[in-house]
């Protein structure tokens, strides 16, 4: 079960990473919607640590792809990556987080979930809920808002 707000006006963006050995992959795709000044990320991300759900980015066309080139504006969301022991446990915890804490979550299979929540300060409460549940095998902390961009600008 996932809850991104993708609609027919969403487009696919490619985020290329400057350090694939750090992120575990060379690129990640995401859904985004056109907004004034760029594209608003409309999907919780698993690999990217500097671009989050709700952020506005600038993208440039490279062949058939729209590639993220710059961060324009932060959207005020933070993302944790969670690995659950089973998908059944994940479904129940995610349902509770969505209802009680406005979380947006996306399953990446095998119990892996990217969980985005408004305001980084609130992520501590969500992490406590996840850990207290006892079904979590692993969880990251929130994205650091001060870390350098991890994608390769395309200009």
Automatic annotation (TrEMBL):
Q: Which InterPro entries match?
A: DUF4265
Swiss-Prot/TrEMBL keywords: Plasmid
Please tell me the species this chain comes from: Euzebya pacifica
Q: What is the lineage of its organism?
A: Bacteria, Bacillati, Actinomycetota, Nitriliruptoria, Euzebyales
Q: What is this protein called?
A: Uncharacterized protein
Give one Pfam family, short name only.
Answer: DUF4265
């Amino acid at each position: 079960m996932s809850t991104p707000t993708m609609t027919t006006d969403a487009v696919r963006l490619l985020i290329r990473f400057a350090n694939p050995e750090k992120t575990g992959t060379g690129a990640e795709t995401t859904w985004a919607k056109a907004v004034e000044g760029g594209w608003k990320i409309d999907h919780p991300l698993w690999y990217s640590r500097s671009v989050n759900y709700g952020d506005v980015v600038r993208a440039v066309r490279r062949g058939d792809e729209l590639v993220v080139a710059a961060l324009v504006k932060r959207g005020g969301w933070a993302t944790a990556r969670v690995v659950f022991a089973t998908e059944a446990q994940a479904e129940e915890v995610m349902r509770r987080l969505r209802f009680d804490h406005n979380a947006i979550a996306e399953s990446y299979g095998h119990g892996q979930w990217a969980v985005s929540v408004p305001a980084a300060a609130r992520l501590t409460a969500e992490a406590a809920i996840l850990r207290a549940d006892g079904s979590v095998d692993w969880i990251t902390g929130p994205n650091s808002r001060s870390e350098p961009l991890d994608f390769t600008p395309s200009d």
